[in-house]
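#struct-help
A.M.: can someone run this one for me? Single chain, 335 residues.
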Amino acid sequence: MRVLVTGSAGFIGYHASQALLARGDEVIGLDVVNDYYDVRLKEARLARLAEHSRYHHVRIDLADAPALARAFADHQPQRVVHLAAQAGVRYSLTNPGAYVQSNLVGFGHVLEGCRHADVEHLVYASSSSVYGANTRMPFSVHDNVDHPVSLYAASKKANELMAHTYSHLFALPTTGLRFFTVYGPWGRPDMAMFIFTKAILAGQPIQVFNHGRMQRDFTYIDDVIEGVTRVLDTIPPGDPDWDGDAPDPGSSRAPYRLYNIGNNRPEELLRLIEVLEQALGVEAVKQLTDIQPGDVPATYADVDDLARDVGFAPSTPIETGVARFVEWYRSYYRV
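D.P.: on it. Structure tokens below:
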């Protein structure tokens, strides 16, 4: 297939592009390569993708509607994996405009591109953060998620609503993926795994929020990508049994679906740090602090729908995933 992957210089977008290329697809990668984090890491990912003859890069901003429309017209993708976004919960507290432009305006342009190019299936990144103030565990796509606690979460919830509108009005098949704390080689420098590893190796203290009682459903990148590719190949039908008197948030009469992609096994932050210390062979200096605004104390994914519909559920234990991340980190940064 010819697949447009937005955010191809990003962590998940890079791995998704590699997986699609490996199975024989043609990939049109779209990324503006902004400086939210180290541009050199993004360029290194793109350099590896450029080694493939079936990879074509388009360097544009999603907020540039004419440029994005030209990219759709020029390349005519059959399917789209939309992973570009302004990421990060805490950054949304200080730079909300970036989230409006990328996650709302940009996503609107992607939907229009898919509509006019008759794209067969749009798969897009949502986030576990949409569960916000919800406390019933594990988090299910069939639960109401109307109480986000950060602008980032609100923007991802808005993406789900916008996608449903296009599925309903234009019969555009869309599937939203709520990712749960993704980590692994080539990861993002603003994520805990990266921050902790860099600080521990430098002998610097690490901030441990919520006094280490934070729980996260840490999900290894290979599991995430397996889920993404399987979902991409599974075009959602409308659910003829969907009932407007008791509306199910996870499906619709329109060709629209939502899935959690998480490890289905939350771990305490202190346990993650312990595993990381073992992999590095260095003990961390910990500074226990309060939970930060916009953060939630725990995440835990119900992946029953994903397993039922695509025959896969993430399962890589953190002991395995962290060791692979540390091996990559030491190799890439020569430490």
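A.M.: thanks! Residues 96-116 form the longest helix (21 residues).
D.P.: also worth noting: The mean pLDDT is 95.
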